[in-house]
Amino acid sequence: MHELSIVTGIIDIALREAEKAHADMIEAIELDIGCLTTIEMTAFDFAWRQAIKGTLLEGCTRIVNRIEGRARCLDCDTVFGLQQVYDACTGCGSHWIAIEEGRQLSVRALTIS
Amino acid sequence: MCATCGCDTVTTKKASRQVVEVERDVLHENNLLAERNRGYFLAKDILAINLVSSPGSGKTTLLERTLTDMKGQCTFAVIEGDQQTTNDADRIHATGTKVTQINTGKGCHLDAHMIHHALEGMRPPGESILFIENVGNLVCPAMFDLGEKQRVVVMSVTEGDDKPLKYPDMFYSSTLCIINKTDLLPYVPFDIEKARSNVHKVKADLPIIELSCLSGEGLNVWYEWLLSK
Questions:
Q1: Cβ–Cβ of A85/B30 closer than 8 Å?
Q2: Is B194 helix (H, G, I), strand (E, B) or coil?
Q3: Is the pLDDT of residue B38 over 50?
Q4: Are B18 and A111 in contact (CB < 8 Å)?
Q5: How confident is the model at residue B12 (pLDDT cuts 50, 70, 90)?
Protein backbone atom coordinates (compact mmCIF):
# COMPACT_ATOMS: atom_id res chain seq x y z
CA MET A 1 0.00 0.00 0.00
CA HIS A 2 2.74 2.44 -0.99
CA GLU A 3 0.02 4.25 -2.96
CA LEU A 4 -0.86 6.18 0.21
CA SER A 5 2.71 7.54 0.41
CA ILE A 6 2.48 8.50 -3.24
CA VAL A 7 -0.89 10.22 -2.77
CA THR A 8 0.44 12.09 0.26
CA GLY A 9 3.40 13.23 -1.83
CA ILE A 10 1.07 14.53 -4.54
CA ILE A 11 -1.08 16.39 -2.01
CA ASP A 12 2.00 18.01 -0.45
CA ILE A 13 3.20 19.23 -3.83
CA ALA A 14 -0.25 20.57 -4.79
CA LEU A 15 -0.85 22.37 -1.50
CA ARG A 16 2.59 23.96 -1.58
CA GLU A 17 2.02 25.25 -5.12
CA ALA A 18 -1.45 26.52 -4.19
CA GLU A 19 -0.07 28.33 -1.17
CA LYS A 20 2.68 29.92 -3.26
CA ALA A 21 0.05 31.30 -5.64
CA HIS A 22 -2.27 32.37 -2.78
CA ALA A 23 -5.02 30.22 -4.26
CA ASP A 24 -8.39 29.84 -2.54
CA MET A 25 -9.18 26.63 -4.29
CA ILE A 26 -7.76 23.95 -6.53
CA GLU A 27 -10.18 23.25 -9.35
CA ALA A 28 -8.19 20.60 -11.17
CA ILE A 29 -5.01 18.59 -10.89
CA GLU A 30 -3.28 16.83 -13.75
CA LEU A 31 -1.04 13.84 -13.06
CA ASP A 32 1.29 11.76 -15.23
CA ILE A 33 1.35 8.14 -14.11
CA GLY A 34 3.37 5.79 -16.28
CA CYS A 35 1.96 2.34 -16.99
CA LEU A 36 5.25 0.73 -15.92
CA THR A 37 5.20 2.16 -12.39
CA THR A 38 4.05 -0.04 -9.52
CA ILE A 39 0.98 2.11 -8.97
CA GLU A 40 -2.14 0.01 -8.64
CA MET A 41 -4.92 2.40 -9.66
CA THR A 42 -7.62 0.81 -7.46
CA ALA A 43 -5.45 1.27 -4.38
CA PHE A 44 -4.47 4.72 -5.61
CA ASP A 45 -8.13 5.80 -5.96
CA PHE A 46 -8.95 4.48 -2.52
CA ALA A 47 -6.03 6.29 -0.91
CA TRP A 48 -6.85 9.44 -2.89
CA ARG A 49 -10.47 9.61 -1.72
CA GLN A 50 -9.46 9.32 1.91
CA ALA A 51 -6.40 11.57 1.81
CA ILE A 52 -7.90 14.62 0.07
CA LYS A 53 -10.69 15.01 2.64
CA GLY A 54 -10.53 18.41 4.29
CA THR A 55 -7.81 19.72 1.93
CA LEU A 56 -8.01 22.18 -0.95
CA LEU A 57 -8.09 19.18 -3.25
CA GLU A 58 -11.43 17.94 -1.99
CA GLY A 59 -13.89 18.24 -4.86
CA CYS A 60 -11.27 19.02 -7.50
CA THR A 61 -11.21 17.35 -10.89
CA ARG A 62 -8.42 14.84 -11.21
CA ILE A 63 -6.98 14.17 -14.64
CA VAL A 64 -4.64 11.19 -14.94
CA ASN A 65 -2.50 10.77 -18.05
CA ARG A 66 -1.45 7.14 -18.23
CA ILE A 67 1.86 7.15 -20.12
CA GLU A 68 2.34 3.98 -22.17
CA GLY A 69 5.60 2.06 -21.82
CA ARG A 70 8.17 2.47 -24.58
CA ALA A 71 11.68 1.06 -24.94
CA ARG A 72 14.59 1.03 -27.35
CA CYS A 73 16.35 -2.26 -28.09
CA LEU A 74 20.08 -2.07 -27.39
CA ASP A 75 20.76 -4.84 -29.90
CA CYS A 76 18.77 -3.79 -32.97
CA ASP A 77 17.68 -0.23 -32.09
CA THR A 78 13.96 -0.96 -32.58
CA VAL A 79 11.68 1.35 -30.59
CA PHE A 80 8.64 -0.56 -29.34
CA GLY A 81 5.76 -0.34 -26.90
CA LEU A 82 5.84 -2.54 -23.84
CA GLN A 83 3.24 -3.57 -21.28
CA GLN A 84 5.71 -5.08 -18.79
CA VAL A 85 9.32 -4.26 -18.02
CA TYR A 86 10.22 -7.85 -18.95
CA ASP A 87 8.75 -7.70 -22.47
CA ALA A 88 11.25 -8.63 -25.16
CA CYS A 89 12.10 -6.51 -28.19
CA THR A 90 9.43 -6.95 -30.84
CA GLY A 91 12.09 -6.75 -33.54
CA CYS A 92 14.67 -9.33 -32.44
CA GLY A 93 13.46 -10.82 -29.13
CA SER A 94 16.34 -9.41 -27.09
CA HIS A 95 15.94 -8.43 -23.43
CA TRP A 96 18.76 -5.88 -23.66
CA ILE A 97 16.48 -2.88 -23.74
CA ALA A 98 16.45 0.67 -22.40
CA ILE A 99 13.10 1.86 -21.13
CA GLU A 100 12.41 5.38 -22.37
CA GLU A 101 8.82 6.03 -21.34
CA GLY A 102 6.28 4.72 -18.85
CA ARG A 103 8.01 5.16 -15.52
CA GLN A 104 6.90 8.75 -14.92
CA LEU A 105 5.11 9.70 -11.75
CA SER A 106 4.61 13.42 -11.55
CA VAL A 107 2.27 16.32 -10.95
CA ARG A 108 2.01 18.05 -14.31
CA ALA A 109 -0.30 21.01 -13.64
CA LEU A 110 -2.83 22.58 -11.32
CA THR A 111 -5.82 24.79 -12.12
CA ILE A 112 -6.30 27.16 -9.23
CA SER A 113 -8.44 30.19 -8.48
CA MET B 1 -25.92 49.08 -7.72
CA CYS B 2 -26.45 45.54 -6.50
CA ALA B 3 -28.91 43.74 -8.75
CA THR B 4 -30.33 41.61 -5.99
CA CYS B 5 -31.41 44.10 -3.36
CA GLY B 6 -30.52 47.51 -4.71
CA CYS B 7 -27.77 48.23 -2.17
CA ASP B 8 -24.54 49.93 -3.14
CA THR B 9 -22.19 47.11 -2.08
CA VAL B 10 -19.65 46.23 -4.75
CA THR B 11 -19.58 42.44 -5.19
CA THR B 12 -16.68 41.85 -7.50
CA LYS B 13 -15.06 38.75 -6.04
CA LYS B 14 -11.89 38.00 -7.92
CA ALA B 15 -12.31 35.08 -10.29
CA SER B 16 -8.88 34.79 -11.80
CA ARG B 17 -8.50 31.17 -12.68
CA GLN B 18 -4.99 30.16 -13.63
CA VAL B 19 -3.15 27.02 -14.63
CA VAL B 20 0.14 26.40 -12.85
CA GLU B 21 2.62 24.16 -14.67
CA VAL B 22 4.08 22.13 -11.82
CA GLU B 23 6.03 19.38 -13.62
CA ARG B 24 7.27 17.88 -10.41
CA ASP B 25 8.21 14.27 -9.70
CA VAL B 26 6.05 12.90 -6.90
CA LEU B 27 9.09 11.25 -5.34
CA HIS B 28 11.09 14.47 -5.58
CA GLU B 29 11.30 15.00 -1.80
CA ASN B 30 12.38 11.42 -1.19
CA ASN B 31 14.92 11.59 -4.00
CA LEU B 32 16.44 14.81 -2.63
CA LEU B 33 16.87 13.22 0.79
CA ALA B 34 18.26 10.08 -0.81
CA GLU B 35 20.89 12.19 -2.58
CA ARG B 36 21.72 13.81 0.73
CA ASN B 37 22.21 10.37 2.31
CA ARG B 38 24.30 9.36 -0.68
CA GLY B 39 26.55 12.37 -0.16
CA TYR B 40 26.99 11.43 3.49
CA PHE B 41 27.93 7.85 2.54
CA LEU B 42 30.37 9.10 -0.08
CA ALA B 43 32.05 11.53 2.29
CA LYS B 44 32.47 8.89 4.99
CA ASP B 45 33.43 6.15 2.54
CA ILE B 46 30.49 3.99 3.56
CA LEU B 47 29.23 1.34 1.14
CA ALA B 48 25.46 1.39 1.68
CA ILE B 49 23.58 -1.71 0.56
CA ASN B 50 19.78 -1.90 0.49
CA LEU B 51 18.67 -5.51 1.00
CA VAL B 52 15.20 -6.23 -0.35
CA SER B 53 13.13 -9.39 -0.65
CA SER B 54 9.81 -10.96 0.22
CA PRO B 55 9.37 -12.03 3.86
CA GLY B 56 11.22 -15.21 4.76
CA SER B 57 13.75 -15.35 1.94
CA GLY B 58 16.63 -15.25 4.41
CA LYS B 59 17.89 -11.65 4.49
CA THR B 60 18.61 -11.66 8.21
CA THR B 61 20.28 -15.08 8.12
CA LEU B 62 22.43 -13.94 5.21
CA LEU B 63 23.45 -10.90 7.25
CA GLU B 64 24.22 -12.98 10.33
CA ARG B 65 26.47 -15.28 8.29
CA THR B 66 28.16 -12.37 6.53
CA LEU B 67 28.81 -10.38 9.69
CA THR B 68 30.22 -13.44 11.46
CA ASP B 69 32.36 -14.75 8.58
CA MET B 70 33.77 -11.37 7.61
CA LYS B 71 34.47 -10.15 11.11
CA GLY B 72 37.92 -8.56 11.15
CA GLN B 73 37.98 -8.01 7.38
CA CYS B 74 35.55 -5.07 7.28
CA THR B 75 33.70 -2.79 9.64
CA PHE B 76 29.94 -3.20 9.46
CA ALA B 77 26.81 -1.43 10.61
CA VAL B 78 23.20 -2.44 10.08
CA ILE B 79 19.86 -0.65 9.88
CA GLU B 80 16.94 -3.04 10.35
CA GLY B 81 13.54 -2.16 8.95
CA ASP B 82 10.47 -4.03 10.18
CA GLN B 83 6.87 -3.15 10.82
CA GLN B 84 7.06 -4.46 14.39
CA THR B 85 9.47 -6.04 16.90
CA THR B 86 13.21 -5.76 17.37
CA ASN B 87 13.74 -9.50 16.70
CA ASP B 88 15.98 -8.99 13.68
CA ALA B 89 17.98 -6.22 15.36
CA ASP B 90 18.51 -8.52 18.34
CA ARG B 91 19.86 -11.23 16.05
CA ILE B 92 22.27 -8.77 14.43
CA HIS B 93 23.26 -7.34 17.81
CA ALA B 94 24.24 -10.85 18.89
CA THR B 95 26.94 -10.88 16.19
CA GLY B 96 28.54 -7.84 17.86
CA THR B 97 27.60 -5.43 15.06
CA LYS B 98 26.30 -1.91 15.54
CA VAL B 99 22.59 -1.99 14.68
CA THR B 100 19.63 0.39 14.64
CA GLN B 101 16.03 -0.73 14.35
CA ILE B 102 13.43 1.26 12.44
CA ASN B 103 9.86 0.18 13.08
CA THR B 104 7.67 1.43 10.29
CA GLY B 105 4.44 0.60 12.13
CA LYS B 106 1.85 0.31 9.40
CA GLY B 107 4.35 1.41 6.76
CA CYS B 108 5.31 -1.11 4.09
CA HIS B 109 8.72 0.30 3.14
CA LEU B 110 11.66 2.36 4.34
CA ASP B 111 12.16 5.79 2.82
CA ALA B 112 15.10 8.19 2.62
CA HIS B 113 13.74 10.30 5.47
CA MET B 114 13.73 7.35 7.90
CA ILE B 115 17.30 6.47 6.91
CA HIS B 116 18.36 10.10 7.38
CA HIS B 117 17.09 10.03 10.97
CA ALA B 118 18.54 6.60 11.67
CA LEU B 119 21.94 7.87 10.52
CA GLU B 120 21.72 10.86 12.85
CA GLY B 121 21.15 8.52 15.75
CA MET B 122 23.62 5.77 14.96
CA ARG B 123 26.51 7.62 13.28
CA PRO B 124 27.94 4.61 11.47
CA PRO B 125 31.73 4.37 11.37
CA GLY B 126 33.56 5.59 8.26
CA GLU B 127 35.19 3.18 5.78
CA SER B 128 32.54 0.60 6.51
CA ILE B 129 29.76 -1.40 4.93
CA LEU B 130 26.25 -0.39 5.98
CA PHE B 131 23.52 -2.94 5.35
CA ILE B 132 19.98 -1.60 5.28
CA GLU B 133 17.56 -4.52 5.63
CA ASN B 134 14.31 -3.27 4.15
CA VAL B 135 10.82 -4.40 5.16
CA GLY B 136 10.09 -7.83 3.65
CA ASN B 137 8.05 -6.74 0.64
CA LEU B 138 8.83 -7.00 -3.06
CA VAL B 139 6.48 -4.23 -4.17
CA CYS B 140 6.57 -1.00 -2.19
CA PRO B 141 10.29 -0.58 -1.40
CA ALA B 142 11.09 -0.64 -5.14
CA MET B 143 10.06 2.99 -5.63
CA PHE B 144 11.99 4.48 -2.73
CA ASP B 145 15.63 5.35 -3.20
CA LEU B 146 17.37 5.40 0.20
CA GLY B 147 20.67 6.76 -1.08
CA GLU B 148 22.22 3.30 -1.30
CA LYS B 149 25.00 2.43 -3.73
CA GLN B 150 23.86 -1.14 -4.28
CA ARG B 151 20.43 -2.69 -4.13
CA VAL B 152 20.50 -6.44 -3.55
CA VAL B 153 17.33 -8.43 -4.14
CA VAL B 154 17.21 -11.82 -2.39
CA MET B 155 14.95 -14.64 -3.53
CA SER B 156 15.02 -18.20 -2.25
CA VAL B 157 14.42 -21.57 -3.87
CA THR B 158 11.38 -22.17 -1.67
CA GLU B 159 9.63 -19.39 -3.59
CA GLY B 160 8.42 -19.63 -7.18
CA ASP B 161 10.98 -19.35 -9.96
CA ASP B 162 8.67 -16.77 -11.56
CA LYS B 163 9.21 -14.23 -8.75
CA PRO B 164 11.14 -11.85 -11.05
CA LEU B 165 8.20 -11.72 -13.47
CA LYS B 166 5.66 -11.22 -10.71
CA TYR B 167 7.59 -8.39 -9.10
CA PRO B 168 9.59 -6.99 -12.02
CA ASP B 169 10.16 -3.51 -10.61
CA MET B 170 12.19 -4.73 -7.68
CA PHE B 171 14.42 -6.82 -9.91
CA TYR B 172 14.64 -4.05 -12.48
CA SER B 173 15.87 -1.55 -9.88
CA SER B 174 18.39 -3.90 -8.25
CA THR B 175 22.11 -4.19 -8.91
CA LEU B 176 22.56 -7.78 -7.70
CA CYS B 177 20.25 -10.79 -7.32
CA ILE B 178 20.95 -13.46 -4.73
CA ILE B 179 19.25 -16.85 -4.99
CA ASN B 180 19.34 -18.22 -1.45
CA LYS B 181 18.77 -21.64 0.17
CA THR B 182 20.32 -23.58 -2.72
CA ASP B 183 20.90 -26.52 -0.33
CA LEU B 184 17.15 -27.18 -0.64
CA LEU B 185 17.20 -27.49 -4.44
CA PRO B 186 16.93 -31.32 -4.43
CA TYR B 187 13.72 -31.13 -2.40
CA VAL B 188 11.76 -28.38 -4.14
CA PRO B 189 10.36 -28.00 -7.67
CA PHE B 190 12.29 -24.72 -8.15
CA ASP B 191 13.83 -24.60 -11.65
CA ILE B 192 17.02 -22.57 -11.25
CA GLU B 193 17.62 -22.30 -15.01
CA LYS B 194 14.16 -20.81 -15.41
CA ALA B 195 14.73 -18.48 -12.47
CA ARG B 196 17.96 -17.17 -14.03
CA SER B 197 16.23 -16.68 -17.35
CA ASN B 198 13.34 -14.83 -15.67
CA VAL B 199 15.76 -12.53 -13.85
CA HIS B 200 17.45 -11.71 -17.15
CA LYS B 201 14.15 -11.10 -18.90
CA VAL B 202 13.54 -8.28 -16.44
CA LYS B 203 17.10 -6.98 -16.41
CA ALA B 204 19.49 -8.50 -18.91
CA ASP B 205 22.69 -7.48 -17.10
CA LEU B 206 21.72 -8.22 -13.49
CA PRO B 207 24.42 -10.40 -11.88
CA ILE B 208 23.19 -13.44 -9.95
CA ILE B 209 24.88 -15.15 -7.01
CA GLU B 210 23.52 -18.53 -5.90
CA LEU B 211 24.27 -19.45 -2.32
CA SER B 212 23.21 -21.26 0.82
CA CYS B 213 23.66 -19.72 4.24
CA LEU B 214 23.25 -23.16 5.77
CA SER B 215 25.85 -25.14 3.81
CA GLY B 216 28.01 -22.09 3.04
CA GLU B 217 28.04 -22.92 -0.67
CA GLY B 218 28.50 -19.81 -2.82
CA LEU B 219 29.08 -17.47 0.13
CA ASN B 220 32.67 -16.80 -0.96
CA VAL B 221 31.35 -15.38 -4.24
CA TRP B 222 29.13 -13.00 -2.27
CA TYR B 223 32.01 -11.96 -0.03
CA GLU B 224 34.21 -11.30 -3.06
CA TRP B 225 31.44 -9.22 -4.60
CA LEU B 226 31.16 -7.19 -1.37
CA LEU B 227 34.89 -6.54 -1.22
CA SER B 228 34.96 -5.50 -4.87
CA LYS B 229 32.36 -2.75 -4.36
A1: no
A2: helix
A3: yes
A4: yes
A5: very low
Domain spans of chain A, in order of start: 3-68+102-112
Report the 3 state secondary structure along B15-34: CCCEEEEEEEECCHHHHHHH
**To the nearest 5 percent, what fractions of chain B are helix, strand and coil?**
35, 25, 40
Give residue B2's pLDDT.
52
Most B CBs within 10 Å: which of A13, A63, A85, A113, as the mutation test of the B interface?
Answer: A85
The strand pair at A79-82 and A69-73 is best described as antiparallel
Q: Report how many Cβ contacts below 8 Å link chain A to chain B.
A: 98
| Closest A-chain CA to B198 | A86
Candidates 3.10.20.310, 3.30.2320.50, 1.20.1280.260, 3.30.450.40; CATH matching A3-68+102-112: 3.30.2320.50
Is B10 domain-assigned? no
